[in-house]
Every structure is written in C-alpha cells, then in structure tokens.
Amino acid sequence: MSSGHLSSLCRQPSRKGVQLFASLNKITSAPITSGRRVALVYALTCDAQSWVPPVIRDDVVEGFATIAQDPPNEVWYVARAVDLNSTTLEVVNLKRLDATFVDLLVATGDYDVALARFADCDVYVYDKYGTAFEVTSEFDAYEEDDDHDGHDKACDDDDGEDDDSWCYMPWYENIIVDFTHHEACNVPDAILWKLECNTADFFLRSRRAGDGRFKLPGAAIVFWPKSRRLTIAEAIGALEMLRDAIECGDVGTLGLGLREFPCRGHDGQLLLQYKDMELLEPFIRDTQHLPLDEANDTARFIHTSLETCSWPALLPAMESFLARAARKSDASAICRLLASLAGLASADDAVCPPLTQPYTGEFLKSCWQAVVIEPEFRPGNAPTEHCILLDWYFDDFLPTRPGDNYLGQWLPPPLLL
Fold this sequence. Notes:
- By secondary structure, this protein is of the alpha+beta class.
- It is 39% helix and 12% strand.
- Strands 1, 2, 3, 4, 5 and 6 form a 6-stranded mixed beta sheet that branches.
C-alpha cells in the first residue's frame, strides 16, 4: 500500500511446486530413526444426518403433484415471470430454465399450464437517480426530458454517444390479455374462457399480486391445479364440462375435484347415464348432499343409482355419504331416506320407492351402522316416526324376511336377531 492506494499481488504457482504436489500421489512410510516427524492424517467422510442429496427430476415432479392434491384455497392462478423476447407465445421460445419448469408441471399430469401476456399500462421514465416520471407515450417522455435538462435527449449528444441517464420501462397490469395453453394439458374451453381478462393470484419469487410495490412482468407461465377446474368454471361451465365428458367419454377433463362440484340431483342423473363407477362413486361419496326438502331429487337419485348399479357396488360410497350427512346433524333426513328404501314410509311420506334387490336388509344394516357410530348423529334428541320404524324394522321385522337376510335362508328367525 502506497500513497493511499491499495495494490494486489497475484502469486502464480511455480512449476516446481506444481510438479512436487503432483508427484505426491502415493502414500509411503519409513521408519523414524532420529528426530520427530509430525503428520496430519485426515479422511473425507460423509455425515448421513447433515448430507442433503441433490434434488432429482422425479423428486420435483412428486413434490408438485403433492401440492396439486391439496392446493391453497385462496390461490388459483400461479404465475412465474419469463423473459419472452418473441411475440409468439410458445414453449419453444422460452429459455431453457423456463422450458424445464413447464416440462415438470406437465409431467405431473395434475396442472393446466399456459403462457400469458399481461396488459400494458402507463410508461415510467427513470433518470439516473432512480426518480420515476409517469408518461403516457414515448413522445411525452422526450418532452419530459426537454423540460428537465433543456435539450432533446431523443437525439444523440455532441460526442455521438447516447445519454443513458434516462430509460424507458413499460409497466404492466395484472390482467391477462393473451395466452396460449399447453396442448398436453387438454384444457377444456370452459376453463380457457375464464382465463382471459382474469388475474394471477400469486407470482413465484415475489410479493402477492396487487401489491403496488411489485412490478409485474410482461409475460409469465400461468398454471393451476386441475382439481380447481370445476371451481374455476363455476356452475354453468362445470355443467358444460360434464356434458362434454359424457359425450366424448373422457372424464379426465373434469379434474375429478368433485368436492367443488356445484351439482344437485338433476346433474347426478347425467352422471348416472354415463354409468362410469369411477365417476359415480366419488360423486356420491364426496359431493352429493341430502336436501330432502328440495323436490326430493337427491333421494330419487340415490334410489336410481342403487337399482342401476346394485347396492353392493355403491355400498362404500353410500356409507361415506350418510356419514357426511350424519356429521351435519341431518338425522331426520337420514332416517326418512332409509325408511323409504326399506318400504316403511307411506306413499305420501316416502321420498323414493323401496329398494327391490336381494338382501336389501344387509344393505340397510350397513348404512345404519355407518351413521350411528358418528357422534353428531343423535336421533333420540328429536325422535320421529321414521326412527321408530327403523328400530322396529331391524329388531322385529327384518329377521322374519329370509330374502332380505343373507343368513335367513339357512337360519331360523330367532337366530337372526
């Protein structure tokens, strides 16, 4: 260091030193005859507890698939900003890292992916001090420049070089104005219509969308879980998706997020016409409600499903359906439905015809057992005639009907209690 300045000295390794260290590639030992020798002996070992293996592609795909199974409720559209120079929204125009990200999302099979552009808004001019001036066009930016420095910065300086004290930065609004979906995702039209003029709910590696301190990108990868399809499409779009799935025989376009399906009994009839157990079972198990005060559509749908598909095929779904209803303290409606299926209710009071299949009593006993084990199911708090009839049916009437009991064809009624 001299005259207040720092100078660095780069020491180049000598050739002899390099040759010396390169020759020490074998471990040798010799007896100590005199004096003392000190050597540092060490070995590189791996600590299994602290070592983190590198992330591989399969791990990333599995992680994204896990998130898609239980996505956040408040976030539908997720965006990742991309630097897209081309005017065409295509995956082939993405950079390698962004294209790899799209490939990972598509590989899960659980996401819809699209490339989107956002709406232009006002242009801000920044000077070399970081001060922003809002303008509406590039010509206005030049006028701001003239007022600020006294000459036209749109022209070159006298020395032939551009003045870089100003830069023109376009700003964007969180409104999707153009997009292209990934062909491998097979996104229904009802979902694509909702994407146009919509907004992204969250941008990766940034603040939440809508924060005034966050500068939106011009283009982004926008993706959302397929399980959100029915929620995004809403009632009209979801019904259209359902009809398309029935016509083309492809239930995968629904995303199978049936808990969000806004259907009632008349939509359940469409599912029943398709006669696909993979679709009908989760609908009854997770979606179908028990609104017996709404023209009895649900009860008739349940009866038709049992008669069409047979009760053994739908028994697990029915047990889950009734357990959900029991947790909502719908004891009266459950008792009325089971009494109607058993043929105990009068013609005016029944919500559906009786079930006419072999061993109907076994089905009703399993359904009754599924609801009585729920802590919220308390028919004794408000006893009705249907609850009393079911109690009599299981204790006294069912044992006398061999056709309704599996063991009734071999055992006498006293042994069936």
